[in-house]
Amino acid sequence: MNKVILIGNLTRDPELTKTSNDNSVCKFSIAVSRRWGANETDYFNVVAWRGQAENCSKYLRKGSKVAISGSIQNRTYDANDGTKKYVTEIVADEVQFLSTKGSDDGDAIGDMKPVDDSLPF
Fold first, then answer.
1. Domains observed in the chain
2. d(CA 121, CA 29)
3. Cα-based angle 100, 24, 44 (whole degrees, multiple of 5)
């Protein structure tokens, strides 16, 4: 079984590209704090595909908090200098946005005010 679940913050803005078959691919990295230990952080590269990739590109920014569910994938490619490069990344099955768009300056829900002050809630 190859299953990983991570919660972390984006370390950079997502990068959206298209494959030769016109499939959307979004790549970004997240920082995940370790539960135990001396406040250590691990960094993971994440890849999302198709509609999910487009949503990630549209709604996520550096610092956004996300939950990722997916699998770990290893792959290799030939670099321009002729060497073989090895990459380990998380292929996202699900990406859940845990911070709202524009909430970097404050909690968008907490900033809402009732339309009618006479309402009891």
1. 4-105 (2.40.50.140)
2. 40
3. 60
Q: Which residues of the chain have pLDDT under 50?
A: 105-116, 119, 121
Mapping DSSP to helix (H, G, I), strand (E, B) and coil, where does residue 53 land? Answer: helix
| Helix intervals (H) in 1-121 | 50-59
Structure tokens, 37? 């230990």
Give the CA distances from residue 19 to residues 16, 39, 88, in Å, rounded to whole numbers and listed in that order. 10, 38, 19
- Residue 103 has a pLDDT of 56
- C-alpha distance from residue 35 to each of 17, 41, 98 (Å): 33, 9, 19
> Residue 33 is encoded by which pair of tokens?
């704090």
Q: Residue 5 is inside which H or E element, if any?
A: strand 4-10
